[in-house]
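Quick check before the chapter quiz. The format below is the same one you will see on the exam, so make sure you can read both the input and the output lines.
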Amino acid sequence: MGRLDLHLTVLNRILIHLMDYRNFREEFEVPFEVTQSGISKGIRIQQKHLPRTLKKLIGLNHIEERTTHVVGVKQKRKVYFLTDEGIQYTWELIKNLMEKDIPIQASLKGKRSESVLKSIPLKELYESEKSKVSLIEILLFLQDNDAYNQEVLYAVLESDEQSMNNVDDNGESASDEISSEMSGLKRIGDQTREDKESMDSTMKIPQVKKIEIYHAALKQAWEDGRVTKDEHDILARLQDKLDISAEEHRRLEMEIMAKSSDKVGSEDVYKSALRQAWEDGVISDDEDSLLKELRRTLKITDEQHARYEKELKAGKKGR
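Here is the expected output.
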């Protein structure tokens, strides 16, 4: 069975996520989930891609931006809410999604390796689950899996909640989340594991050491010449927590990619980087700069780049 095509664009993810917080629109103090960081975590995309998308939604008059107090955060933050027009648009979007039939997978009692599969409308599924999970959490799970599995989703959400238990004054989790992200990158060397353990006890790590830790994680992710979406997301969060600048990230990645090309070939390395940059459908200025530098380093011509990009876009349309 193939995955259900929900056509969840980044714009639609944001709108559905913000729908849950529409009643806080006029409040003096609002939930963390309507900040850029909160939206990023809620819809599972890198925060660096949000400003452009949020600006587009503001231009469509679907959301509005203001600066106000946020629960658990000392300083005021920019926050985002659906406009009246945005609420109406999102209701229609949700209404159409609710009519879709969703495959449901459940383990047979006492038999973990076996399961039963049935199909019910999303509306029925959401009604039974809305006291425990949000609609966007269900939709994101369905986007990544062949069927809805309550046990698996609950386990994932519980893990995410544990990683957010330790939050600093800026509304960001500290050592717990770094520990979680580091454990997400498989096969990281012994030295990096020792560094992770040291982070659990203190965040006061010299910047040089932070760069070493990030370099080890980045090198491991590129070991096979490509970075998976999961590894890419983990690295992005790790970069943020270790205060690794975009320039430092580019320098380290360029160095590692160049070495990877000796093993798996320049074309494969560049295609992987291009695929990663286009993952969310938008190439940021930083990503564009990295790709240009990478073309020079790997001796990839503009014609090759155009061909790879055309193949990549054709592949996305054919899905």
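If your answer matched, good. Residues 175-317 form one domain.
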